[in-house]
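Illustration 12: Peptidase S9.
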Amino acid sequence: MALFSSLPPAPIAPKKPVTDTHHGITRTDDYAWLRADNWQAMFKDPSILDPEIRTHLEAENRYQKAAMADTEALQKQLFAEMRGRIKEDDSSIPVKDGPFAYGTSFVTGGEHPRFFRTPREGGAETLLLDGDKEAAGKAYFQLGGLDHSSDHSLGIWGYDDKGSEFYTLRVRDLETGEDLADRIENTGGGGVFAPDGKSFFYTVLDDNHRPSRIYHHLIGTPQSEDRLVYEEEDAGFFMGVGGSSLDDFIFIDIHDHETSEYWLIPTSDLTAAPQLVAERETGIEYDMTEGGDVFYILTNADGAKDFKIVETPVTAPGRENWRDVVPHRPGTLILGHEAYARHLVWLARENGLPQIRVRDRKSGDEHAIAFAEEAYSLSLHGAAEYDTDVIRFSYSSMTTPSQLFEYDMATRERRLLKTQEVPSGHKIDDYVTRRVFAPAWDGESVPVTLLYRKDTPLDGSAPCLLYGYGAYGMTIPAGFNTSCLSLVDRGFIYAIAHIRGGKDKGFAWYENGKMAKKTNSFKDFIASADHLVAQGFTAYDRIIAEGGSAGGMLMGAVANMAPEKFAGIIAAVPFVDVLTTMLDDTLPLTPPEWPEWGNPIESEEFYKIIASYSPYDNVEAKPYPVILAIAGLTDPRVTYWEPAKWVAKLREKSTSGAPVLLKTNMDAGHGGASGRFQRLEEIAFEYAFALKMAGRMV
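Figure caption equivalent — predicted structure in token form:
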């Protein structure tokens, strides 16, 4: 290709065939050697990576750097633009909690947040934790947040300095700013204080990166003396620990992608054995919040596919005592809920758009907070205190910067607290946001959110970045994104395909994009591209597709199914070796993922279903477009060898001669670089690739 005419020869991974047989079916994997045998240890110490693998990944990095050399000036320009849209010394509006108000801020040039507090009604800030100071000298650093004790004297904070998501917890004296001697290793990233502030609960990850145990730590004692509170023996479940809003209970939350279970520890007796709320039942989900003498539970029990809210006595929370408070309404998906002394609040989605609903707990009166734009994003922030009538929520759209509101649930008055600043300027009227609907193969309609400049020609000549995810029920919000303006201002249409596998159109939208119906996600994305072309927004040779993680699987699948419909594909940390990963129950996420994709170890049917779409297994001799894959060496979610193997096989099979590029971040994991500006550099790199493929580098 002319765009890559001066490229050196691409790295060729040697073939070292390995075979496996399941259900009488034998596969051969020529590139299995790219998986490090010592991957568990390597996640904690990347320096021990097998030299042959490191040499190959570094060769791939040199190749992609050569391929993108002519975009380096553009990358710097894009980065400068994106940085210019960020208020560098930004600060949150502090949240009131007891005698203080807590917030976060950034300093000019800073990569990481600072945590501070002020007196409740305002005053001088006290710096509690400086992320930039803690990150100094580290190639990678990710803060896990800061949680303060009920008496506001201590804080628990966590950090990951490898990108492998094994967090270390420290305890900080919030008066002196000094850390105590306590150091808790291999945690999931946070802890929850007991009300007296003398101890806390936390989750430990095992060697396979699974949250398998919850411990109780007495401050001032070594981790080796911590008391085991709960151990989850089923590797297919995630687990977390949290506190109730009134500090009456410690919640142990156990779940996979379709089943939930809660256990309670009363804070009046921290040594008490955890009490089961409702025994796990496959397909039944529930989520709890405390409301004084009752719990409010969000659940899909009793056929409530789009969920309902029930209440149950704190003294007898079992399912036999659940009573409907907010009944199930088909088509109105309840996403989350919160309870306060006088009000119950929940976030719902109806007709693809979010709304916040508020109910007076005494009178039963109910009202909604909604907006009128064609597509928008709404987030419920709630409040830190239980006895309050005032909560917060935020609103944005593809054209409207984020706005933070304070809302009085009793008077129904809203007050704008803050509007996201765009220092380099942003004229809302210069842009258009729309939601169109693409007809799918089976008669469904796929929502597609669009953003473009008013002066962008809609005659098929505009390039388009089409983004998709479509898994785990996650909905990609139609919110404000300062980074994508760098594409839109260069004539791009920025599009989000709200495909099946998410919950954009209710829970059924998720169900119809998972397990045996997973291919609907891929077909919906292709249908979205077809519709944008048919409606004159763009053309196939101008569409750059993008997705990450499970969205990277989407990219691999559509590359196999319809390579001619994309000028280029960006696959970030792509989950492309699906069958191999789902057959390996030692990998961190495999057992918990079976309810999403199916278990090919036990089921021949699901083996064949996954084998039919797994991107790596379906690479074949055909003209693939230019593909950019991005990996993180210490990524525990999508291991680096998945994109590395995929790229090697694509390069072997593709008949188009189009380059296949692999960029591996040797100092990061699933989320890429951790600093806010470092992340912008990665986005600038991806967008420079899109602009190069669209011929819009100037």
